[in-house]
Specification:
- The chain is an alpha/beta fold.
- It is 39% helix and 20% strand.
- The chain has 16 helices and 20 strands.
- The strands form five sheets. It has a seven-stranded mixed sheet with strand order 14-15-16-13-12-17-18, sandwiched between helices. A six-stranded mixed sheet has the order 9-8-7-10-11-19, sandwiched between helices. Strands 5-6-20 form a three-stranded antiparallel sheet, with no helix packed on it.
- α15 links the parallel β17 and β18.
- α1 packs parallel to α8, α4 runs antiparallel to α7 and α10 crosses α11.
- It is globular.
- The termini are far apart.
Length: 485
């Protein structure tokens, strides 16, 4: 059940299957964004701790180790055991996630449910990673082996702390890699709890290591480490560029990035307007707008624009905001930095001529709460149309033709996700084919499931997570050629 007084057991670094203090002895506070109170003081890792974690991960990956000698099916069984333990402790983990992040307890439970399914998907994939035999020229017998990259670094964001961890652990473990992970400093609690579950599940020493800390110290140490062979990052474009540059300057480690978005959702004039407005409402306001795939540009056909805006206004007006343990659907923004940033974007929308249909300000001062905000009369040149807000702000733009809106939707440096609501199959396929985005949803939004690849075009990143493609990020391909008699 929901428990705002959930005990916090784990606050130290997790290295080589043990919880340890940071070498510096430093700690940092993680807070509840609903009331700004300190939840716990967390050990702050830095370069020295990352070095220790890499040492442990290298030992675990060494040829002849318990982990390397484990059958692929054995890896799958361990991942499945971790999924079972996560399912067993679903309420504890959901409470930690809600407290640390500010998302509603119900939403946090949904994140745990998705994460269990994702782990089980990759548990089943562990013994299905296969190579090929190749009919090579000149009398050679050729084949390929798919092998784990080795020690991998993973840096995850605060908006979906548990899910982003599982998205990265699942395929990395299935492939046979070992892990050094840094959770976001705003939300370290669930990562540390899942680390404890990994030990209970029976993962060998050093396979999983968790180093809470800050980006410029712990995060930099991971992306610059000469013995980490690959780094996976989810977060902002700005930090993604830094990580890619640092990785190149260190040891040219492989990099996969899942970055920001300014996703377009197109609403054609042949739809049920109330239903379309409901889909669009959740597409932007889910998780308090703190989602890289949020439909932050809602393009609505001019014939139904006014009716749509009216529906959108009522939906936002009736959206309940409050403490994550109350009967609400929206809690606080994650911290003061994001709270201030979102309010500045709202102010820019007002100054640049967009019309505030509802919301437009903060709520109280006890936590980082912002009113669900709807802007109409938004144009492409406004700041709220071009930059990622990462908050509960819906911008509604008007269009005339499908060709026009496709061109406008593609006029961005981002390309993570897109959607269209229509009853015209030709329009749906035309849009899906033409839009420059890694995920396209028709008559739905945010249909993210473990089996389907996820990632972005352009500055929204490189590589794909989830599905078969997610495994590829953690594998090398070795070609073996044999001279035939």
């Amino acid at each position: 059940m929901a428990n705002p007084n959930q005990e916090i057991k784990y606050t130290k670094l997790f290295i080589d299957n043990n919880f340890v203090d940071s070498k510096s002895g430093k700690t940092f506070a993680t807070i509840n964004p609903a009331n700004k109170k300190v939840l716990a003081n967390i050990a702050e890792g830095d370069k020295a701790d990352v070095d220790a974690a890499v040492d442990a991960a290298e030992r675990a990956f060494k040829r002849g180790s318990v982990w390397r000698n484990l059958d692929a099916s054995g890896r799958g069984k361990l991942i499945y055991k971790l999924a079972d333990l996560l399912e067993r402790d679903m309420l504890i983990v959901a409470n930690l996630e809600a407290l640390d992040n500010g998302k509603t307890f119900k939403s946090a439970c949904g994140d745990v449910f998705h994460s269990v399914g994702c782990l089980r998907y990759y548990a089943g994939y562990a013994d299905k990673i296969t190579g090929k035999t190749i009919p090579a020229d000149y009398g050679f017998f050729a084949m390929t082996r798919r092998e784990p990259i080795g020690v991998v670094g993973q840096i995850i964001p605060w908006n979906f702390p548990l899910m982003m961890l599982i998205w990265k652990w699942g395929p990395a473990l299935a492939a046979g890699c070992t892990i050094v992970l840094k959770p976001a400093e705003q939300t370290p609690l669930t990562a540390l709890y899942i680390a404890a579950l990994s030990k209970e599940a029976g993962f060998p020493d050093g396979v999983i290591n968790v180093i809470p800390g800050y980006g410029p110290t712990a995060g930099h140490a991971i992306s610059a480490h000469p013995r980490i062979r690959k780094v996976a990052f989810t977060g902002s474009v700005e930090v993604g560029r830094i990580i890619m540059e640092t990785a190149a300057k260190s040891n040219l480690k492989k990099v996969s990035l899942e970055l920001g978005g300014k996703s377009p959702l197109v609403v054609m004039d042949d739809v049920d307007v109330k239903q379309a407005a409901s889909i669009a409402h959740e597409a932007i306001f889910a998780n308090h707008g703190q989602s890289c795939i949020a439909a932050s540009r809602t393009f609505v056909h001019e014939k139904i624009y006014d009716q749509f805006v009216e529906c959108a206004r009522e939906l936002a007006k009736n959206r309940k905001v409050g403490n994550q343990y109350e009967d609400v659907v929206q809690g606080p923004q994650v911290d003061e930095e994001m709270y201030t940033k979102v309010l500045k974007y709202i102010d820019s929308g007002k100054k640049e001529g967009a019309k505030v249909e509802v919301g437009g300000s903060c709520i109280g001062n006890s936590g980082f709460f912002i009113q669900p905000t709807v802007f109409s009369d938004v144009t492409d040149d406004m700041t709220i149309s071009k930059e990622e807000i990462f908050g509960p702000v819906q911008s509604i733009l008007k269009f005339k033709t499908l060709d026009e809106v496709i061109d406008r939707a593609n006029r961005t440096n981002y390309g993570l996700a897109a959607g269209i609501i229509t009853n015209n199959i030709d329009a749906a396929f035309t849009y899906a084919k033409a839009i420059e985005a890694g995920s396209v949803w028709v008559n739905c939004y945010a249909a993210v499931v473990p089996q389907v690849p996820f990632g972005g075009y352009k500055e929204s990143g490189s590589g794909r997570e989830l599905g078969e493609n997610g495994i590829e990020l953690y594998l090398e391909t070795k070609s073996i050629s044999i001279r035939l008699p």
